[in-house]
Specification:
Keywords: Nucleotide-binding. It holds the Pfam family HIT. With 160 residues, the protein is α+β, with helices and mostly antiparallel strands. Strands 1-2-3-5-4 form a five-stranded antiparallel β-sheet. It starts with 8 loop residues before the first helix and ends with a helix. The relative contact order is 0.19.
Length: 160
């Protein structure tokens, strides 16, 4: 029998959730996996991704309600979706994307009180029997390696 080792997953499975909101946390951007900031929002890597390059976009302002967003905030969220897609195409050449929100616990929101979008690059054949049989995803790249690989693409994409 072959074994697949993913020892970093034990933290997710055994630790209680960190106090506070992951989207409001401040500190070292690399430790927090924040890869890009704008005046209204941030882009970060998902600590427990579905695929390598799974990005999360959130406003700096803490809200869970779509109807509380200003026009500028809505525009910034979707501008960042397009930016993330561009970065991921140039850095990783995915075959497609899943983009979306989980609004509320019943919809699968892991953080239900701070609205955020998921941008998930997908490759043909990236889902295999592991997800079905073992409730496990195989990620070929370490999280901080993904961070370091994607980071230089954001300033270029913003025209800096």
């Amino acid at each position: 029998m072959d074994r697949l080792w993913a020892p970093w997953r034990v933290e997710y499975l055994t630790q209680p959730p960190a106090p506070g909101c992951i989207f409001c946390a401040e500190g070292d951007d690399r430790e927090l996996l924040i890869i890009h900031r704008t005046p209204l929002a941030r882009v970060m890597l998902n600590r427990y991704p579905y695929c390598n390059g799974h990005l999360l976009i959130s406003l700096h302002r803490h809200t869970a309600e779509l109807d509380e967003l200003t026009g500028a905030e809505m525009q910034e969220l979707f501008r960042l979706v397009a930016l993330c897609k561009d970065v991921l195409v140039r850095s990783s050449s995915p075959d497609g994307f899943n983009v979306g929100m989980n609004l509320g616990k019943a919809a699968g929101a892991g953080v239900e009180d701070h609205l955020h979008l998921h941008v998930v690059p997908r490759w043909s054949g990236d889902s295999n029997f592991m997800s079905v049989v073992a409730d496990l995803r195989v990620l070929p790249e370490a999280l901080l390696a993904t961070y370091d690989r994607l980071l230089p693409f954001f300033p270029k994409a913003e025209g800096a």
